[in-house]
Amino acid sequence: MTERRDSAVIAQQLQHRSVRRYLDAPVSDAQLERIVHAAQRASTSSNLQVVSVVAVRDRERKRRISRAIGGRSYVEEAPVFLVWIADLARNAAVMRAGGAEPETLGLIENTLIGAVDVGIAAQNALLAAESLGLGGVFVGSVRNNPEAVSAELGLPRHAFPVVGMALGVPDPEEGTGVKPRLPLAGVLHRERYDDRAWRPAAEEYEADYERYFATQGTPGRSWARTVIGRLATAAGLHGRHTMRASLRAQGYDSE
């Protein structure tokens, strides 16, 4: 049997790790533009292109955003902080310019389109950044206080900050490894969902998870306890349990 060989893209994807510490080195405008251009080539629902991104370099603006979302040193220290926007404002303007009133923007389907398209585009962007020797981390904490982030960035109605991304040249002293994932047997279903398949995979992953974090200096970590802490009660959402009100404030009624 011929030995399996990954493509260069897959090899890059399998080495992904979150990077939260950066060297004192810039991310150039040329790099930023190539990264966002790669993000634009991601699939987009019905070619609606409902994604925008705000690149923040100003130190004080990064500091204000960091404070608003709970204090994130990697937001403040990254050379550039990207905020990925579900942007139906542009589409609304296009419709009105064409003599049509945008009647469906408050429907939950369009909320989902915005969130899905942002996720696809932003992952394209991070992979592109990593291919250029950069590293980064997704920052879901922008949703801890989307009203403040929207105000800081001057977002119009029908534009919502879905996720942030800190980018920079990785500090090799950070030492973060490639975090394990659930075994494939617990994720890949064939023909129909198998409610039993993930259970032994989760048990295996619990051990892998604890071993990984022991190498990172935090022994005794548990994936199951992490899930419980994050999802069992509203406290684990860090203020995001009010997301419906936050969405409505930006014109996403999600009805």
From TrEMBL:
This is NADPH-dependent oxidoreductase. Keywords: Flavoprotein, FMN, NADP, Oxidoreductase. The lineage of its organism: Bacteria, Bacillati, Actinomycetota, Actinomycetes, Micrococcales. CDD domains: NfsA-like. PANTHER family: OXYGEN-INSENSITIVE NADPH NITROREDUCTASE (PTHR43425). The keyword Transferase does not apply. Belongs to the flavin oxidoreductase frp family. Residues 15-168 form the Nitroreductase domain. It comes from Leucobacter allii.
